[in-house]
Amino acid sequence: MSSSQIPIDHNYNYNHRRNTSISMAASSSSGSQHPLSAGNGNGAHGGGGFSTVLHALPALPVHSHHVAEVLRAVFSSLIFSRSLGALTPSLDASSLFPDLVYPSLSYDARSQRQLDAAVRRVCESIEDAHAAGKLVDGQRWHVAISFYERRPQSPRPNATPTSSSPVGSWGSWFLGNSPSASSSILGVARTERSLSNASAWETWTLPLDLFTSTTSVSAELGVALRRTLGYVCERVNEHLDHIPPVTSRDALSYPFDITAAPAHSSAKDKAHDNGDGRRDSMGRERLGLDVVRRLLASTPPKGDLL
């Protein structure tokens, strides 16, 4: 064991703490066992000398006004599942569905602020698209969270001080300055500097089918959201061998980034898609080889991670 690695009981952190909180959230909201089978739903792609495990979550039908709460519920559960430091688990109740609860990020104020800021950016981008007349009922957006491994920085002569915990991503969904500029989805790292110090080892993609009409989708959304939280609980407990060593005593063991991009202009486009519109039997999208080629060919936006 390296001197920088903190000895932590992974069995306790993953199987005990997460089961008692995330499973509590899923079971208390659904009252039954999660019906989705594990399936495959993920893949690993090499880039820059490391690999990123990709997880495709089931698509959710969401009214544009409900996006923020849906993202908070799903991504809070994922962030909690990858927080291996000392913390006291607690639960938040959904503002949309009073009987649905999910893990709270109250144990780490910085993570909560980062999540809130990212959710605001996604919602603002969707609102801009709606105001510009570019958002139609059934249009799909992809929102994803990527987790990164902190890599020790090697001292360099005459090096200019940089961020204390730089991170970089091989696999991540990008959010541009506007919906039209946010055409790139998966892409290479934003800066060569960040890639040298960190890597995205896991990305969870959440497809959202957005609706702006007055037709209520709350009932369908409630069922779908409960299924997704159950699926998250199932998947995070199944695949653990790709998780990097813990090198910090912080509650949040790995930096994360949340980004988004519109995928199609309408539901009809999705039905005729030859790449990222393909689905498996569970409704999860498959990332085909043609999709990866298009994504890698896209130009990532400028700027640093949160």
Task: Provide structural commentary.
- This protein is an alpha/beta fold and 306 residues long.
- The chain has one domain (10-152, 165-297).
- It contains seven helices and eight strands, in the order αβββαββαβαβαβαα.
- It has helices at 10-30, 67-81, 109-131, 192-195, 218-238, 267-271, 289-297, and strands at 42-47, 50-56, 60-63, 91-93, 101-103, 139-150, 198-211, 256-262.
- Strands 1, 2, 3, 6, 7 and 8 form a six-stranded mixed β-sheet that branches. It has a two-stranded antiparallel sheet with strand order 4-5.
- A hairpin with a 7-residue loop joins strand 4 and strand 5 (101-103).
- 41% of the residues are buried.
Question: Low-confidence runs (pLDDT<50, min 5 residues)?
Answer: 1-49, 159-196, 265-306
Q: Rounded to an integer, what's the Rg over CA atoms?
A: 19 Å
Question: What proportion of the residues form beta strands (DSSP E)?
Answer: 15-25%
Main sheet record: 6 strands, mixed
Number of strands: 8
Number of helices: 7
Distance between the termini: 30 Å
Number of domains: 1
What is the molecular shape?
A: globular
Instruction: Supply the helix-strand structural class.
Output: alpha/beta
Oligomer: single chain
* Mean pLDDT value: 67
Succession of helices and strands: HEEEHEEHEHEHEHH
Estimate the helix proportion, in percent.
25-40%
